[in-house]
Amino acid sequence: MNIERLRNYIETCFENKEWTPSFKDYDTWNIFKNLLNRGEIRAAQKIDGAWHTNSWVKKGILLGFRIGKMASFSQDIFTFYDKHTYPLKSIDIHEGIRLVPGGSSVRDGVYIAKAVTIMPPSYVNVGAYIDEGTMIDSHALVGSCAQIGKNVHISAASMIGGVLEPIGANPVIIEDNVFIGGNCGIYEGAIIKQGAVIAAGVIITGGTSIYDATKDRWISRESGKGLMIPENAVIVQGSKPLKANPEFHVACPIIIKYRDSKTNASIILEGVLRS
Q1: Model's pTM, two decimal places?
Q2: pLDDT in tens, 45-99
Q3: Could you read off the pLDDT of 149-175 as tens digits, one per residue?
Q4: Domain span at residue 99?
Q5: Is 77 within the bounds of a domain?
Q6: Residue 67 in contact with residue 25, Cβ under 8 Å?
Q7: Is residue 274 situated within a structural domain?
Q8: Do 134 and 183 belong to one domain?
Q9: Which stretches does DSSP call E strand in 111-189?
Q10: What are phi and psi of 81, to 5 degrees?
């Protein structure tokens, strides 16, 4: 089945609330999920320099929950119950993925490229796309449909939120060579452009306003688009006074500079750990 036919199938089934799947339908939907696993389809992709959401792919993921039936995947003392359409992802040693033992879970329907390292315990949800050389550190989350680029470092306890619904909304996108510090949170379809450095403890949502101290300007979400963090921006958590009462402050991420050789030295990653 080619991609266009598969897309039409997903769209038709999703819109028909009375639809009941047959064995043939399950087979077709599994073709869809296998394409997700291989990275041949994805929830969002970059076209002519701009990110576009593939709504039909998100519909297909949601369809998997609708047609799934509760099943037990338990083994010995490990108990695991979920929709039968979404077991754990099968990862082969020849794929070149390091999945370190200790409580990590990767759901089926996730693309993970070679040389990705996942430290325990971490969780990667369905529809996520993780490109080559990326490190997912301990206690980190990659949410449903999140798109992670090449050579990204997601530090311990950081949350990369997923945006499965609304269907038309961009998921969270982390482009190539981004460094996410420990205990950060990136949510609501924010786009972190390549080379950016997010310091520990920074929280960025779709509605967050970022102050660029180097250019004395505010960066906010544009109408119809997600919040976009500029390339090579270095962001720390700051604060700003409330207009109603300047004695009180609220959190405010601040761009303190743009990436340079000193920044690169401070976040250098040991290449041997990724090989």
Answers
A1: 0.93
A2: 999 999 999 999 999 999 999 999 999 999 888 899 999 999 999 999 999 999 9
A3: 999 999 999 999 988 888 888 899 999
A4: 87-267
A5: no
A6: yes
A7: no
A8: yes
A9: 111-112, 117-118, 123-124, 129-130, 135-136, 141-142, 147-148, 153-154, 159-160, 173-174, 179-180, 185-186
A10: -125, 130
